[in-house]
């Protein structure tokens, strides 16, 4: 089976700054590839390469077996790669259905007499949301009145409706509470079950592990490893995310540096007891 996306030794530099080096992973249809890392790990650089915002300068990027370097986000979108960024790019005061079609509004009429087809817009939006299991009270309500989780779900449904093969989600649960994060993860799983390849960017292993099929760990632009779910536990994933090896080394140093307080005090005094002489 040909992967939807495959990166091999991919890298990106900005002048003398190495933002990404030698990163390899795959995104398959019907699977969730989770990209985990702390701030500055290179997650944003990777998704911008996949989304066509930046071009890689090392390694190989293949989309459905074809080696490619996207010239623009539009080209990535034409290849079925849709990205939902953290800020969602929605217009808060505009209705849900208008945000759903933003830039691709349905029209009726001919030539200069074309007008916005509000009825079709509302019906298609409601149906598309319903197919994803999202039941909104009214698609005419401003999108700004929705919760953060609901807005993420609308963005996911929009990408699915417009034919995305790969859905890239940039920290979709970062600013959400436990309940809302759970709602978003449920729709991530639904997108996966509909056959999309999902790339989930997160710094939270407890959000990634329940829905993830593959985990790519990044640190300072380098890969710490890529694991199938069967090969890594949530405990080990959390440990690596928390810098487990570094913490172990630090703990060892601290234990080695521990001395008896009385001995330490005597050494610092530089005073020798007379009884100890001769």
From TrEMBL:
Name of protein: Monosaccharide ABC transporter ATP-binding protein (CUT2 family)
Coiled coil: none
GO molecular function, one term: ATP binding
InterPro entries, per the entry: AAA+_ATPase, ABC_carbohydrate_import_ATPase, ABC_transporter-like_ATP-bd, ABC_transporter-like_CS, P-loop_NTPase
Endoplasmic reticulum as UniProt keyword: no
Pfam families: ABC_tran (PF00005)
Membrane-spanning ranges: none
Sorted UniProt keywords: ATP-binding, Nucleotide-binding
Organism from which the protein derives: Umezawaea tangerina
Start and end residues of each ABC transporter domain: 5-245
Region (Disordered): 259-278
């Amino acid at each position: 089976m040909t992967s939807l996306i495959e990166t091999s030794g991919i890298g990106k530099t900005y002048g003398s700054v190495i933002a990404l080096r030698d990163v390899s992973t795959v995104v398959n249809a019907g699977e969730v590839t989770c990209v985990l890392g702390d701030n500055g790990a290179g997650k944003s650089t990777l998704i911008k390469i996949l989304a066509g915002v930046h071009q890689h300068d090392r390694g190989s990027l293949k989309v459905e077996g074809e080696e490619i370097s996207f010239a623009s986000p539009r080209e990535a979108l034409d290849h079925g790669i849709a990205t939902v960024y953290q800020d969602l790019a929605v217009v808060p005061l505009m209705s849900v259905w208008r945000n759903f079609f933003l830039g691709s509004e349905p029209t009726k009429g001919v030539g200069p007499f074309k007008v916005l087809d509000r009825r079709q817009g509302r019906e298609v939006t409601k149906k598309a949301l319903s197919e994803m299991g999202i039941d909104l009270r009214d698609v005419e309500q401003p999108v700004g009145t929705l919760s953060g989780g609901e807005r993420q779900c609308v963005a996911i449904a929009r990408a699915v409706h417009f034919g995305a093969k790969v859905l890239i989600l940039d920290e979709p649960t970062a600013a959400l509470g436990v309940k809302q994060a759970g709602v978003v993860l449920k729709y991530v799983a639904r997108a996966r079950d509909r056959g999309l390849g999902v790339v989930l960017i997160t710094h939270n292993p407890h959000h990634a592990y329940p829905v993830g099929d593959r985990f790519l760990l990044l640190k300072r632009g380098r890969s710490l490893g890529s694991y199938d779910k069967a090969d890594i536990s949530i405990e080990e994933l959390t440990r690596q995310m928390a810098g487990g090896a570094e913490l172990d080394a630090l703990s060892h140093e601290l234990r080695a540096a521990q001395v008896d307080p009385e001995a330490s005090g005597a050494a610092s005094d530089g005073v020798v007891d007379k009884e100890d002489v001769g």
